[in-house]
Specification:
Blueprint lengths: L1 E5 L4 E2 L21 E2 H4 L7 E5 H4 L14 H10 L1 H4 L4 H4 L3 E5 L15 H11 L3 E3 L20 H24 L4 E6 L4 H14 L3 E4 L7 H14 L5 E4 L16 E6 L1 H8 L5 E4 L5 E4 L2 E2 L7 H8 L5 H19 L5 H12 L10 H21 L8 H6 L5 E2 L1 H24 L4
Parallel strand pairs: 1-4, 1-10, 4-5, 5-6, 6-7, 7-8, 8-9, 9-10, 13-14
Antiparallel strand pairs: 2-3, 11-12
Helix pairs in contact: 7-8, 8-9, 10-16, 12-13, 13-14
Bound molecules: zinc ion (ZN).
């Protein structure tokens, strides 16, 4: 099973100065920076997925989803995605670079933001190895399998648009002799309707299907969908899971003949999850998670600065506590401080992230106790010392500190590496 990372222009500054929290001298965004596959060996994924909506602004596309400037878009199309993403050469020549439309970004819009002709041209110019026909997301998934007549006209329309686009798209791919492998996207309102869509795509001539709309679904619903689809299609037809948020439960889907899936979740959890920020390989082939230690830069933290403005805290006092937490944690890493003293320093600063949130002292104390228990576990286990990845080897304890994007993204890269290794160890696939 291949794991694709969905590119959102994630790179870090290799010259970042962690002690002073400054970029390396003369650093130029993107040009000096490195992607996860440049920093880590082996690369922490088997391929990249690039969404057209992250690259090109269009009517109906949420501006927040566009990650590329116009110049970057032009360069990507002129040089090709492999060169732009520095994901070419002998090391990556067999790695997949898949394009899709990023249907999430125009989900509110009545029709997809791009026409099949436009999408085809975009994929060809970017030099992708695989390309998904433009789909339109259906979020509903009714396990009772209502008939087409029983669902809202807007849903029927999305179903019809996705299939009509797929037919046009495949016709164009064939006529123009496109060098990429086309994927037919499956959208539907129930397991049965998705199986029907999969069947029709297969009849059109697609040998690789991309299953969409799984994001809000629970594991049992996804299983119902995949069971229904597998029953209607040939065993050799390949399946890709689009935007698969339940990456850590992928083992539950091992029997469905999944060829590939894409996810951002190991990276995102490094800085969006409330407690599972750092991945580690646990016993019995299971992933284990640790909470990162929050020591934000006081002067750049919105919540802390609000408190200062309101006169609740003093800036000097916060800075002093912030420094003490950092010094203590680094000393602990060197064996020059204890768990207790470090936990005390960390929580002494951390409390200000909660004080002033309006929930009352009792609630805050409860929440602080919970955090302290999680931080204590991280300190006791010192997981960063047991990881051999390029990130942990080079920055050590800094990887576990929840502070500035250069630490948080590196922790995300580490997570991708642990995840990818775990996946291939337990399910096979490229090493
Ligand atoms: Zn690591």
């Amino acid at each position: 099973m291949k794991f694709l990372y969905s590119d959102t222009q994630d790179y870090v500054d290799p010259g970042y100065d962690f002690l002073n929290d400054r970029c390396g001298p003369g650093r130029e965004r993107y040009w000096s920076d490195v992607y996860a596959h440049e920093l880590m060996e082996p690369a922490p994924y088997d391929g990249l997925l690039v969404s057209m909506s992250a690259v090109r602004q269009a009517a109906g596309v949420a501006a927040s989803k566009v990650r590329y400037s116009t110049r970057e878009e032009q360069r990507l199309l002129r040089d090709g995605a492999r060169r732009f993403l520095r994901y070419g050469g002998p090391r990556f020549k067999d790695a997949m670079v898949m394009g899709d439309c990023g249907a999430f970004s125009y989900v509110e819009h009545p029709v997809p933001a791009y026409l099949p002709e436009e999408v085809l041209e975009f994929y060809a110019e970017a030099g992708f190895s695989h390309g998904v026909s433009p789909d339109h997301i259906i979020f509903d998934c009714d396990l009772s399998n209502p008939s087409e007549r029983a669902v809202a006209p807007a849903i029927q329309q999305r179903f019809a648009i996705t299939l009509a686009n797929a037919e046009v798209f495949l016709g164009l791919v064939r006529r123009e002799g496109m060098p990429f492998e086309p994927l037919g996207p499956v959208q539907g309102w129930s397991p049965k309707s998705m199986a029907e869509a999969a069947h029709r795509l297969e009849r059109m001539g697609y040998g690789y299907l991309a299953i969409g709309g799984l994001v809000p679904l629970r594991v049992d619903a996804i299983k119902a969908v995949l069971t229904a689809i597998r029953e209607r299609i040939r065993p050799e037809t390949k399946i890709h899971l689009l935007g698969f948020a339940k990456a850590d439960s992928i083992h539950e889907f091992a029997d469905f003949g999944i060829t590939s899936f894409d996810s951002t979740s190991p990276l995102i959890r490094a800085f969006k999850d409330a407690k599972a920020n750092y991945y580690a390989e646990g016993a019995d082939d299971r992933l284990e998670y640790y909470t990162a230690i929050r020591i934000p830069q006081a002067m750049e933290n919105a919540r802390l600065m609000q408190g200062v403005k309101r006169g609740q805290f003093s800036a000097e006092d916060l800075l002093r506590r912030e420094r003490r937490a950092l010094i203590e944690l680094r000393a602990y890493d060197r064996g020059a401080s204890s768990v207790e003293a470090t936990l005390d320093a960390v929580m002494d600063y951390h409390q200000f992230l909660l004080r002033g949130d309006g929930t009352g002292a009792a609630q805050q104390d409860k929440s602080l106790d919970k955090t302290a228990a999680l931080v204590q576990r991280t300190l006791e286990h010192q997981p960063w010392k047991h990881c051999n990845c390029a990130v942990c080897r080079s920055i050590g304890v800094e990887v576990i500190i929840f502070r500035s994007s250069n630490r948080n993204k590196r922790r995300g890269f580490h997570n991708l590496g642990v995840y990818s290794r775990h996946l291939h160890k337990t399910l096979g696939g490229p090493a």
